């Protein structure tokens, strides 16, 4: 074989070897890219929820069942290489269409979950709060209610199961989906203590109340008042009745005691319900709030109007405002006007 032929043969071998090397390198390069850097998250879900106690297999099951990934196999390979199994953190994670396995895994490892904004407002009963929490946080409503119904637990914070609802100040709060019941309660207690600063506590003490009693009264004021401007007047009226030992006779407490919030006219049968929340039968404040009062209502109690009113009745024009009276004679005139207006509209319940 000539020298030229030998050179050509060697060159051909080199080219073949290079081609094989490039093919192998290309294969592994594409595989590496697909495993870590290729878009893999679909648009099927906006969030991925990793529950407390989840193991890697639980996560993979969710990803597969909800069709969150285009290729579950490449995710599994990347997760094993990046040690996701040992660093999985519970939370609510925001997904973006086209996210890579690497980006998703890094987010889960770091626990970079999106905060949840909880807004408390106009929630009538504590069960409603538990339901709202269950829609936004990991524990379900039953789990929250178990804690709120635990006398031993709420006593640690100075409440009973009837007064614990006074601890929740209506506002917008930011926390993580994976927040536990105990963590949530601790945060709410911190907000409560922040709200009830020295100034508010001194104002409450000056009218013979503490934060719990002021909030219970505020819940009645809030239920009575359609307009914030009337709240200090109503608060002053009820404080007058409390000071003189007169039954509060607040219709919203009777409605609460009967657990029928469709009632527009509180009449005889409703008034006879035997409940500590029926302020037509039992003197003083009810044992707990009848709703989650607004901050406006709480501050209206603390800054109550000084008046001599003892009676109130909705105005006969159905404007939402009230007629106030200092004597029963004046009140009877106002009440007669309102009853007649109800009768004209065929409102008997």
Descriptive report:
- The protein has 349 residues and is mainly alpha-helical.
- It is 51% helix and 7% strand.
- It has helices spanning 3-36, 56-65, 72-81, 101-110, 126-136, 141-148, 151-155, 181-195, 198-206, 211-224, 231-244, 251-258, 268-271, 295-302, 328-344; strands at 47-50, 91-94, 116-119, 172-175, 311-314, 322-325.
- It has a two-stranded antiparallel ribbon.
- Helix 5 crosses helix 6 and helix 11 (231-244) packs across helix 14.
Describe this structure in a few short sentences:
This protein is mostly helical.
Topology:
Blueprint: H1 3-36, E1 47-50, H2 56-65, H3 72-81, E2 91-94, H4 101-110, E3 116-119, H5 126-136, H6 141-148, H7 151-155, E4 172-175, H8 181-195, H9 198-206, H10 211-224, H11 231-244, H12 251-258, H13 268-271, H14 295-302, E5 311-314, E6 322-325, H15 328-344
Antiparallel strand pairs: 1-2, 3-4, 5-6
Helix pairs in contact: 5-6, 10-11, 10-14, 11-14
Estimated radius of gyration = 33 Å
Query: What is the N-to-C succession of helices and strands?
Result: HEHHEHEHHHEHHHHHHHEEH
Fraction in helix:
40-55%
The stretches of 5 or more residues where confidence is low (pLDDT under 50) are none
Q: Could you list some keywords that capture this structure?
A:
7% strand; 349 residues; elongated; two-stranded antiparallel ribbon; mainly alpha
